[in-house]
Design goal:
The chain has helices at 39-43, 85-91, 125-139, 149-152, 166-171, 188-195, 210-214, 232-246, 250-262, 288-299, 313-321, 325-329, 388-405; strands spanning 3-5, 14-16, 53-56, 65-66, 75-78, 81-84, 94-101, 104-110, 120-121, 268-271, 284-286, 341-343, 346-348, 356-360, 364-369, 374-380. By secondary structure, it is α+β, with helices and mostly antiparallel strands. The relative contact order is 0.16.
């Protein structure tokens, strides 16, 4: 149970977060603290109660077969030695883990107030979902990845996005001076979060909302397309492009084109600002089993329940094989996957297995190992947004777990 303490009573006054009717003020998860520990363990399962959200609808459920096994004691790499999987999950603040092999449910594990029945925020795994929706529109001839961003969104002419292509958005090769510093309370990222309705607005007259904020981002000196520069607003602008290309709200497009055809067992959600702009860079919440279903859909090259195509196979193939290695080497994410690449919002890990990954802050993961036919979905509540040591621990554990199952 998440706890905080009452400073007026000293250190001996633990209070359960969001318990009571109403909860004590010091124990309430709010717009100001919802991404901070200990409030985040509750808030990451209740985002729609804090930030305005739109529903991503589903349809008939893709029923997963089961080959249940207890994986909690499987020994996996941990530092210079080994540790059981359960210990690694606890050490990385895991709220939920779902493991599939060959499309069948092998194991699921929940902790930290997450029971698998509520949608858990995906953070930047949302980008990977957004990339798949873009692929569907491209396959239908509604979106041209080679087109200029301003062909779809002329409102950003004169900004960092002027001269960039949709592929630059997809591959994070837009040249912009935006600084993605999660913990800088006064910088670009803080202003960005206010625009998305994720932080309280300190401006008396109101700050720019998301779409207006995107049009203010400055360009860097380098040309577009040269280096992978990880900037979350790129993915929100991709959401705007998708809405223009698909002529509908992103939540509706994602539901009609992906979530419902995939057979998700529950609706997903996406946060929106007060003008309805979707946070396609990080605002999607979904059940962990549905995140695993998404991974299985990608592993199966877009073929969903009943053998029906949901995603274009050529787009999945390009996610696995495309991407500019030199742009990755010249970029700012090489330490995560030294042998990797980035394509259409997905990470090619560079592992011999050909594993593909989607990654979000605070420890959200989707890992797809084609050799072992393994999919691993992980929801977490790590106290800090970015933890390089935890990331490498998880990567090593996932690779070893897939090998053990394979």
């Amino acid at each position: 149970m998440s706890e905080t303490r009452d400073a007026r009573s000293g250190p001996a006054a633990p209070v359960a977060v969001m318990r009571g009717a109403p909860p004590p003020e010091r124990a309430q998860a709010t717009l100001a603290n919802w991404r901070e520990s200990p409030f985040s363990e509750w808030a990451f399962n209740h985002v729609r109660e804090i930030v305005p959200s739109a529903e991503i609808a589903t349809g008939p459920v893709w029923e997963l077969g089961e080959d249940r096994a207890d994986l909690s004691a499987v020994p996996l790499p941990a530092g210079d030695g080994e540790a059981p999987l359960s210990a690694i999950l606890s050490a990385t603040a895991t709220a939920g883990l779902v493991v599939l092999q060959g499309g069948r449910l092998v194991w699921e594990w929940y902790d930290r107030g997450h029971d698998g029945m509520r949608p858990h925020i995906l953070f930047s795994v949302s980008k990977s979902v957004t990339g798949l929706v873009a692929g569907i529109l491209a396959d239908r001839g509604l979106l041209d990845p080679s087109a200029a961003v301003t062909d779809y969104v002329p409102e950003v002419e004169g900004s960092a996005y002027d001269g960039a292509t949709v592929t630059d958005l997809l591959d994070m090769t837009v040249s912009t001076a935006f600084d993605e510093s999660y913990l800088n309370a006064d910088g670009d990222f803080a202003r960005y979060r206010v625009s998305t309705a994720w932080n309280p607005d300190p401006a008396p007259g109101g700050s720019p909302q998301l779409r207006a904020f995107l049009a203010t981002l400055p360009k860097a000196d380098a040309p577009h397309g040269r280096a992978m520069h990880y900037v979350s607003p790129n993915s929100d602008l991709l959401g705007w492009v998708i809405e223009r290309a698909g002529r509908a709200r992103f939540a509706d497009l994602a539901g009609d084109l992906l979530w419902a055809p995939m057979g998700a067992e529950a609706p997903a959600e996406i946060t929106v600002d007060r003008l309805g702009a979707p946070r396609t860079a990080g605002g999607i919440s979904a059940r962990t089993r549905d995140l695993a279903r998404l991974g299985e859909l990608v592993r199966r090259r877009g073929i969903g329940p009943g053998g029906r195509p949901v995603l274009p196979g050529w787009w999945i193939d390009d996610m696995w094989s495309g991407g500019d290695r030199q742009a990755w080497l010249d970029g700012d994410m090489t330490e995560l996957f030294p042998e990797g690449r980035y394509r259409s919002k997905w990470y090619q890990t560079g592992h011999a297995s050909g594993a593909l990954a989607a990654v979000g802050i605070h420890g959200q993961w989707l890992w797809i190992d084609p050799d072992a036919e393994v999919v691993i979905a992980k929801a977490s509540a790590q106290p800090v947004p970015s933890d390089d040591d935890a990331d490498q621990r998880v990567i090593a554990a996932f690779a070893a777990l897939a090998d053990a199952l394979g």
